[in-house]
Amino acid sequence: MKALRRVPLLALLALTSCGIPATGVVQAGGPASGTLPMTPVYFVDNGALVAMPRTTGLPGDPEAALRLLMAGPLDGEGSTGSLATEVPGLPTMAPLPTEPADAPRPPTPKAPTVTAKGDTMTIRLPHGMDRLSDVGVRQMICTAAAAYRLTRPSADPVAAEVSGAGGWLVRGSDEGCPDLYR
Predict the structure, then answer these.
(1) 164 with 178: CB under 8 angstroms?
(2) pLDDT tens digits for range 61-79
(3) What's the CA gap between 31 and 23, in Å, rounded?
(4) Alpha carbons 135 and 86: distance in angstroms, whole number
(5) Considering the entire predicted model, what is its pTM?
């Protein structure tokens, strides 16, 4: 009978004396994957839209994708090495002050805001970006919709409304947006 009482005690000692300390969760960076999250961003090459892959920390986020679009193409990118954009960029730094610090300043342009419900998306341009060319609107719609589809695939087209100050509004969809540039 004494031997049976010793078994639980021996098992407990064996488990606690293995020498492996309890560490809890160890943060070691991003997910264990061989590829980084990418999102298509649409630029202009010889007058046609092309999708270029961009690394993103927020895959599936249309606003993050539009910020990548507004950062512009990389030097030497595309089939001709000279991609372009018709979407104005975000300022990379504040201008040097030329007036007293307490003087009123115009608001700094921000990225567009995007709201989505089902397969419908609304893109609101920030103050100072009041109107875009037809190509610029297509760049925004294709970029925002492609990011949205990364986490919400659908066979239906994504309808989009792009609006700016003064009541400017353009409707479109992601039908006809090209696949990733190869």
Answers:
(1) no
(2) 999 999 999 999 988 777 7
(3) 19
(4) 7
(5) 0.71
> Does 138 map to a domain?
yes
- Asked if the structure places residue 70 within a domain, the reply is yes
Amino acid at 100: P
Domain encompassing residue 70: 38-85+109-173
Cβ pair 90, 126 in contact under 8 A: no
Nearest to 125 by CA among 81, 136, 46: 136
pLDDT over 90 (residue 143): yes
Tell whether 75 is covered by a domain: yes
* Beta-bridge partners for 171: 161
Does residue 151 belong to any structural domain of this protein? yes
Residue ranges of alpha helices (H) inside the chain are: 2-16, 62-71, 134-151
Joined together, the tokens standing for residue 42 give: 């649409």
Which are the contacts of 75, defined by CB distance < 8 A and separation ≥ 6? none
Structurally, the chain folds into a number of domains equal to 1
28-52, pLDDT tens digit by residue?
A: 555 555 567 899 999 999 889 999 9
CA distances to 54, 68, 91, 92, 111 from 95, in Å = 28, 21, 9, 9, 18
